[in-house]
Amino acid sequence: MNKGYVTISITGKNPSLFFKRFILNKIKYEKFKQLNRNTIIVKISYDDYLLLESKNTVYDIKIIRSYGFIKYVNFFKSNFSFIISFVLSIIFLLLISNLCFQIEVVHNDKEIRDLIKNELSSLGVKKLSLIPNYENRKKIINKIINNNKNEIEWLEIERLGSKLVVKVTERKINPDEENLENRHIVAKKSGIIKKIEASNGEIQKKVNDYVTKGDIIISGNIIKDDTIKGQVVAKGVVYAETWYNVKVEYPLYYKEIKYLNEIKNNFIITFFNKSFSLKKNYTESYLENKKVLIKDKVFPFELSIEKQRKTKVINQRLTSEQALKKAEDLAMKKINSSLSKDEYIISKKALNYSVDDSKIMVDVFFKVYENITDYVKVEDIPEDTQNSE
Q1: Are residues 117 and 135 in contact, defined by beta-carbon separation less than 8 angstroms?
Q2: Which residue has the higher pLDDT, 189 or 224?
Q3: Where do the domains of the chain lie?
Q4: Would you say the pTM of this structure is higher than 0.70?
Q5: Are β-strands 227-231 and 221-224 bridged in parallel, bridged antiparallel, or unpaired?
Q6: What is the CATH number of domain 5-78?
């Protein structure tokens, strides 16, 4: 195996003569140079250098420069103590930076705080333990919630340096329905009834009936022969077609940042508040995640890894038709943001719009399938309203 090459200097009385003896032994060389009468410089293989050293008795032979594998061997030998110290320092910093020194559970109830700390401890998360990575924290969260379904509604474990902050929401058990006061189910807003589901009380309206806000749909009064015989808690849900008129504006000059599928991890070295990337940055990129691997509070050095997603910027002048379509989509987003999963938009229609040099203004009319269930105590209904119903 060729260990590499070295440039050497040979100093002594007539070094050329000494070197020429070994050329006869088929020593290959290059870049031969005679500096002066007593010194020559030549580049040879490392094995041939060892041969010269073994035959040398009076000449001073020194390595000036190394090439190839032997370069790194010599560097390691000459800097052995520094390299070992540096590697051990990196390992120590990585270990220290991933140790948990504090766990804080954010909740007012001491019992809940103690419950979470005990659960974390049973799963190996405690002071001076290694901080679990993001994926393992997700698994720990799921285990704690599954083990305490009646106590815990939601849980989050956030890492802040060497500290874990646990945010928890306690599960609130709804009060027994027997404790509910007698009530009517009324319309929360005006609309045309599309669906009535009732498990208790007397239905007063039918599907396709128009109702206004406050109209009784499921009564809590039990009526027989036009007389109230008793009162109950009305239970059920009512869906209706409701209406919205949304005014939106949209610019004619359109700019969009598209997030592409190309992702790369980039190592960033920060030294004295100056950052250097080990890889070339994207011209346009979005930083999705940054993780600090090494940070020294005394020495101004930090090594971090960034997850970068490539982006593409689109600039466009919209036509009136394109701007109208985007304005309608924006109006739909506004409506959908206020709807629950069992509610939806039935239809939409742009009533009118106007365009100036920079934007379009649109009125969009929506028909929405919406839950209009609301409650009112029986005694809050006026007597004449009860009789009319």
Answers
A1: no
A2: 189
A3: 5-78, 102-170, 179-252+318-389, 254-315
A4: no
A5: antiparallel
A6: 3.30.70
